Structures are given as structure tokens and as C-alpha cells.
Structure prediction request, 57 residues.
Amino acid sequence: MIDSVKSRAGVIKELFGFLWKRKLWWAMPMVMVLLVFLILILLASASPFAPFIYTLF
Prediction:
């Protein structure tokens, strides 16, 4: 499980590196918001905190 998290973190690091190199700074906030929503969806689907997260939406 830790290896898959590390590989996903590497992908995210490469994405931000690409955006920084191509001077697409305006896209970084959008990507961060999408990542936050992804984390919320993953927590809502597989945790006991699901009822609390569902109230946010």
C-alpha cells in the first residue's frame, strides 16, 4: 500500500513539475482543488467518516 502511495505522489510531483516548467502557474490551483476533491471522495467511500464528509456536499 505504501508503494502505491509513493508512486502516486511521484505522479503528482511530475505533474506540478511539468506545470512549473511550462509556466502554467494558473493551472496549479485548479489541480490542487481537484486533488482535494479526490481525497475527500476517497475518504468518503472507504472510512467511518463518510457521514461527516457527505454533509459537506
Remarks:
- The radius of gyration is 14 Å.
- The mean pLDDT is 76.
- The chain has three helices and no strands.
- Residues 2-21 form the longest helix (20 residues).
